[in-house]
Design brief:
This protein has 157 residues and is an alpha+beta fold. The chain is built from 3 helices and 5 strands. A hairpin with a 3-residue loop joins strand 2 and strand 3. The N and C termini lie far apart (82 Å).
Length: 157
């Protein structure tokens, strides 16, 4: 086999491997998109935005602010820090991907900045729900109770 024939054979192998890799990437992306759609559906079913808006209207007389951040819809312009530097001062951790989370925050000023942050995200175990970094069951009743407790904790009631 000549040099040229060897290269042509290698090129065919390379094209096949590339096609297989691209197929796997496409399948992975489709699966992730399906999981993210499920996460968005869960957020709507739980009514996180509505519950925080109701807390703002009822408890804070509308003086707070409710903001929702969908991790996978954030752009590079949304980053306040250099994406090449991690918070711990080292290199970015490629395994720590915070894009698969929907964060809804109720913030207000009451003798200082106060906030209640609700994270609904994907982990290896499935969907998780956290209020101020405390994990709770992803159910409406648990969310309601958790929000009340978080408000009391924030104001030290």
């Amino acid at each position: 086999m000549t040099w040229r024939e060897t290269l042509e054979g290698l090129k065919e192998d390379l094209n096949e491997v590339r096609a297989q890799r691209q197929k796997q990437v496409d399948e992975d992306e489709a699966g992730l998109e399906k999981e993210r759609d499920g996460l968005s559906q869960t957020a709507r079913e739980l009514g996180v935005d509505g519950l925080l808006a109701e807390m703002n209207a009822t408890l804070l007389d509308g003086k707070g602010k409710v903001e929702t951040i969908v991790g996978w819809e954030s752009s590079d312009e949304d980053l306040d820090i250099d994406p090449g530097i991690s918070m711990n001062g080292g290199e970015p951790d490629d395994g720590d991907d915070d894009t698969d989370v929907i964060t809804t925050i109720l913030s207000w000023n009451e003798g200082g900045e106060m906030e209640i942050a609700v994270d609904l995200g994907l982990s290896d175990e499935g969907i998780y729900l956290q209020i101020n970094e405390i994990e709770i069951r992803p159910e409406r009743e648990a969310l309601e109770q958790g929000l009340i407790e978080a408000f009391r904790d924030e104001l030290e009631l």
